């Protein structure tokens, strides 16, 4: 039986996502789809627009059968670590036969070729990478330049193909393939060419706008009716219901007052203990926070050739959530996988039984209180961070909308027929 894995955020779930689910099932001849989804905070370094259970409902009504949460420490990390943990979870299920992801390229062969160069790091490529890093380029920019030069020098592929490393979905796809290689996984990677607007395109008037454009529209308009034609029906209804109930939307800049307080109440030594706060970034963050009047001004005062906006956003989010670098390194090197279930339908329930049959020792958490009893000390560090992130998220909802949300212990997972 073929089971297709998809890794996503669905922030929110739009028509392009619905197309990918349908195309992935057809391409892999899958009898089931397992989703690895970020929780209440996402890889861009910001809160999700609506909570993870609402997004789980939208996913289950759009063709997914089982939704598992990507641990928060990794859901908010760079593409490499985000992908690494997602693939570990899919491997741990023991039933996932295929991985599908959307890409700007649409060619799995091109992306595999690039991933193999980046994974194997031949001597010529490593030399070029170090050369560009020594000039002060950020790692992503240095890697991009080194790949172009290496490909050109060795006539391995067209430079247009090599440019695939520049676009967001291709970057993630390449990291998925690298993770499959590192973990010696038997899961077969496949891709669907992304349709609709580009990842960063913020124009909501297009037929299939990006998630970025949808979030921008929500932030700028009170009347959301135009989005009814831009989102799958259930995704739109879920979004509107969350808003109607005072449970969102939550935007990236809403963390600013709490973040600024935490920064200014900390010393550089304390800030330097948080994930991704390194290379002296803590001093720039404190200096910027002294004069920042909102989130964007805070980030803009830190921006430089050395620090990209996304890196800064992730570092700030880790400060806000209290993610320590030493904990992240411990989890990344030593944590055994655990599966935290967000929702499932009848097919997903059968998949869970098959997963349990494959590995009886794998913790599968469907009840929060019982979940604590299944985990070892290292897993508990990650699990507690997941629960803590929900407390932070619910606090934002309460502060901005005066809505009291149930905590994780009071929130049942989503079960559909």
Automatic annotation (TrEMBL):
Subcellular location: Cytoplasm
Family matches, as PANTHER family: TRNA(MET) CYTIDINE ACETATE LIGASE
Pfam families in the record: HIGH_NTase1
Annotated TM spans: none
Gene Ontology MF term list: ATP binding; ligase activity, forming carbon-nitrogen bonds; tRNA binding
SUPFAM superfamilies per UniProt: Nucleotidylyl transferase
Enzyme class: ligase
EC number(s) given by UniProt: 6.3.4.-
GO CC field: cytoplasm
Task performed by this protein: Catalyzes the formation of N(4)-acetylcytidine (ac(4)C) at the wobble position of elongator tRNA(Met), using acetate and ATP as substrates. First activates an acetate ion to form acetyladenylate (Ac-AMP) and then transfers the acetyl group to tRNA to form ac(4)C34.
Keywords: ATP-binding, Cytoplasm, Ligase, Nucleotide-binding, RNA-binding, tRNA processing, tRNA-binding
Official protein name in the record: tRNA(Met) cytidine acetate ligase
Family recorded in the similarity comment: Belongs to the TmcAL family.
Gene Ontology terms: biological process: tRNA modification
Record field: catalytic activity: cytidine(34) in elongator tRNA(Met) + acetate + ATP = N(4)-acetylcytidine(34) in elongator tRNA(Met) + AMP + diphosphate
Domain of life: Bacteria
Binding-site positions, ATP: 7-20, 102, 169, 194-195
């Amino acid at each position: 039986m073929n089971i297709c894995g998809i890794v996503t955020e669905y922030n929110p779930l739009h028509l392009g996502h619905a197309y990918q689910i349908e195309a992935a099932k057809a391409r892999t001849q899958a009898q089931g789809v397992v989703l690895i989804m970020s929780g209440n905070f996402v890889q861009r370094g910001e809160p999700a627009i609506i909570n993870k259970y609402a997004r789980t409902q939208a996913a289950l009504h759009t063709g997914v059968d089982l939704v598992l949460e990507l641990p928060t420490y990794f859901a908010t990390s760079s593409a490499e670590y985000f992908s690494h943990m997602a693939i570990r979870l899919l491997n741990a299920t023991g039933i996932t036969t295929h991985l599908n992801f959307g890409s700007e390229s649409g060619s799995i062969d091109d992306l595999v070729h690039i991933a193999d160069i980046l994974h194997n790091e031949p001597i010529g490529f490593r030399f070029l990478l170090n050369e560009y890093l020594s000039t002060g380029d950020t790692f992503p920019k240095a890697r991009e330049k080194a790949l172009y030069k290496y490909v050109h020098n060795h006539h391995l592929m067209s430079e247009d193909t090599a440019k695939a490393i520049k676009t967001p979905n291709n970057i993630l796809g390449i990291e998925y393939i690298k993770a499959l290689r590192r973990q010696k996984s038997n899961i077969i990677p496949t891709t669907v060419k992304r349709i609709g607007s580009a990842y960063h395109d913020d124009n909501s008037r297009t037929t299939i706008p990006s998630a970025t454009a949808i979030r921008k529209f929500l932030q700028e308009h009170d009347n959301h009716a135009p989005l009814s034609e831009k989102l799958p029906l259930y995704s739109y209804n879920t979004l509107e219901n969350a808003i109607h109930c005072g449970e969102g939307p939550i935007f990236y800049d809403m963390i600013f007052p709490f973040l600024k307080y935490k920064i200014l109440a900390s010393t550089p030594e304390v800030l330097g203990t948080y994930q991704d706060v390194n290379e002296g970034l803590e001093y720039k963050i404190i200096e910027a926070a002294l004069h920042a009047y909102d989130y964007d001004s805070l980030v803009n005062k830190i921006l430089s050739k050395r620090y990209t906006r996304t890196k800064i956003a992730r570092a700030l989010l880790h400060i806000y959530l209290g993610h320590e670098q030493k904990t992240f390194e411990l989890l990344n090197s030593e944590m055994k996988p655990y599966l935290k279930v967000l929702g499932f339908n009848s097919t997903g329930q059968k998949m869970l039984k098959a997963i349990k049959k494959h590995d009886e020792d794998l913790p599968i958490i469907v009840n929060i209180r019982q979940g604590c009893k299944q985990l070892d000390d290292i897993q508990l560090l990650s699990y507690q961070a997941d629960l803590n992130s929900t407390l932070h998220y619910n606090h934002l909802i309460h502060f901005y909308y005066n809505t009291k949300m149930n905590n994780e212990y009071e929130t049942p997972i989503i079960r559909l027929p």
